[in-house]
Amino acid sequence: MSCAHCGKGPVTVRIEHAHGAVRDYCGAVCCRSDCPAAPEPFVVNIPKASSENEAYAATLFSGTLEFKLIHLKDGEDIPTEVHTTADQFFRVEEGKVRIVVGCGKETIELFEGEACVIPKGTHHRVVNADNGAPAKLTTLYAPAQHPVGTVYKTRADAL
Fold this sequence. Notes:
Layout: E1 13-16, E2 22-25, H1 46-52, E3 57-62, E4 66-72, E5 77-81, E6 88-94, E7 96-101, E8 106-111, E9 115-118, E10 124-128, E11 135-141, E12 151-152, H2 155-158
Antiparallel strand pairs: 1-2, 3-4, 3-12, 4-11, 5-10, 6-9, 6-11, 7-8, 7-10
């Protein structure tokens, strides 16, 4: 199977678009100008992709920013982190999460369909707060840190 952009391989991720088209990508960066293999706009059916995602973290887009699906099992978290150069966006697709901000004195609860932007320079930790059910999120941040197709099946794999 070859990449929909460059015609080469190996394919690292398959995206099924909302309208039914399927695209296979290798994740390579292209010149983006006058190139017949220039990347297409990224399109994804977020509810479907998130619902089907069972991996702790899966990178679906990586350019100037990174778009990632997150699946937190009961009691699981994204450890405390900070982005020094840009804000980070989180949206809860399924379940409920608690975001611990700064030194831990402030927490934000987000429910399905709600979103939050964490300002750059702010320490934050995201915890599944859904008591027994998984929490599924999408996140956007910059700069991108993982190539398209990076998948961490478990939290331990990501650390």
